[in-house]
Design brief:
This protein is mainly alpha-helical. The protein is 73% helix and 0% strand.
Length: 150
């Protein structure tokens, strides 16, 4: 089922799940790079580093599916929330990572931006749909068929 914007709820959910997987992938990479010694290439094959690629790949596949189901201008801003997830979980895994006031403000700006972008798209699309309905109604009236708006 598609919303007014032409983007299904499924696409939005897929995009949100995508951000969780890509964020977990980034956190796994961070855990894995601490075990890498470039003098020994085998250390690139450590569990967390490889897990990061796997999780990031799952996120990629979910994003592709979400983009197929929805509009780019609705789905892609959701990807920015990956920073929010990383900001929430990184300090828990890495004691040297911490959130300060400016970082929290940045998280707030990202969340507000996603809300504004999705809201403006919905409003624009709603107005476009109203215009389309009026045109259809006028066309049907000229053919002698009256159709009531839903």
């Amino acid at each position: 089922m598609h919303s007014v914007t032409g983007t299904s709820k499924k696409a939005i959910v897929l995009a949100i799940i995508c951000t969780l997987f890509t964020s977990l992938g980034q956190l796994s990479w961070k855990l894995g790079v601490g075990k890498i010694d470039f003098a020994h290439w085998q250390t690139l094959l450590n569990f967390f580093f490889l897990l990061g690629f796997f999780l990031y790949g799952l996120g990629f596949l979910l994003l592709v599916r979400a983009l197929k189901e929805g509009e780019l201008t609705v789905v892609f801003p959701i990807v920015a929330t990956s920073y929010v997830w990383v900001s929430l979980f990184s300090p828990l895994l890495f004691p040297s990572d911490h959130m300060n006031l400016l970082k929290w403000i940045g998280v707030g700006v990202i969340l507000l931006s996603v809300l504004f972008l999705s809201g403006s798209v919905k409003k624009e699309t709603t107005n476009e749909r109203k215009t389309e309905i009026k045109k259809e109604h006028t066309k049907n009236m000229t053919n002698g068929v009256e159709v009531q708006d839903a």
